[in-house]
């Protein structure tokens, strides 16, 4: 799975902030950043890059004063 969930985001975080953060860590995104209030979804070229992003960033990197969470995106269950 190449789509990741980015959580615990400050309301002031922008899509550009996230693109810049992943760029600083040399983690290539493969598509748009879908930003919601307090969380976002990003796509990576393959699973290896997704794993590297989780290992490098989750619980370790601060963005706009909050430590971000990075994990696999889990589809909503249909009712």
UniProtKB/TrEMBL annotation:
PROSITE patterns found in the cross-reference section: RRM (PS50102)
UniProt keywords, alphabetically: RNA-binding
Coiled coil: none
Any Pfam family: RRM_1
Positions of the RRM domain: 2-75
Domain of life: Eukaryota
GO molecular function: mRNA binding
Record-given protein name: RRM domain-containing protein
Source species of the chain: Erpetoichthys calabaricus
